[in-house]
Amino acid sequence: MREGSAAAGRKNGALSPCAACKLLRRRCAQDCVFAPYFPADEPHKFANVHKVFGASNVNKMLQELGEQQRSDAVSSMVYEANARIRDPVYGCVGAISSLQQQVDSLRAQLAVAQAELVQLRMREPNSSSHLASSNHQANVGESLWSC
Amino acid sequence: MREGSAAAGRKNGALSPCAACKLLRRRCAQDCVFAPYFPADEPHKFANVHKVFGASNVNKMLQELGEQQRSDAVSSMVYEANARIRDPVYGCVGAISSLQQQVDSLRAQLAVAQAELVQLRMREPNSSSHLASSNHQANVGESLWSC
């Protein structure tokens, strides 16, 4: 959608530059590599990416990718740049570390809950419900290891 | 340790440049901002950070931080740069997305296990073990929400 809107903007206005060319004060060519992803109405998006990665590096990274991959690459670079501006020391590595801690904590809690389920099932007098519960436990175990 | 080794290297050899100055082909000054974190024997570390962020941006980002924070900032930038070189489309945002999926999946599995524990405990005939289990469940629940 942004691609269409940026292309239309340049076709209709002819001289309306994308956010990148506006910041870099250069002519926005018809085949500008930034224009489809950095529309003029979102100037902060390019400003942050430029501050963290540098326009020249972003240009190079986009040129090295196929057109189908560029939109995702820009989104991930914008995410990383915003994270680095918010947290200049850890950037989005801070989020990775926090998520990894959550995964470790949840795995430990799940192991405790599953161990307790096994104990409770062993005490169950009804053998048919015991069988059903055991099958269920096997499924939970499988999904845990597939993470 | 790296700070000491880099400083000693420059004091003893006087002209031995750090990995950054070597790559940028410039004189490595006594107060070089890169030298403590990019020793000459780890050239790929600076090469990747330079390729992704650009030496000028890394320099600026380090100058804006206190000396105590620079080592962590370099480590997180090296991590991000390596991830972007390994995966030019998603970089370390790919790891964030994968970890977030693991957290969601583990939370769902824990909720299922906890619901099953509640059911099994309600069927338990022994009230003292029921009480002990209930207390345990409250703790597990608290740790879940503290994530």
UniProtKB/TrEMBL annotation, chains A, B:
* Disordered, as annotated region: 125-147
Q: Which Pfam families does the UniProt entry name for this protein?
A: LOB
The chain positions of domain LOB read 16-117
Show the PROSITE patterns listed in the entry: LOB (PS50891)
Question: Which keywords has UniProt assigned to this entry?
Answer: Coiled coil
Q: What family classification does the UniProt entry report for this protein?
A: Belongs to the LOB domain-containing protein family.
Protein's name according to its UniProt entry: LOB domain-containing protein
Q: Which organism is it from?
A: Linum tenue
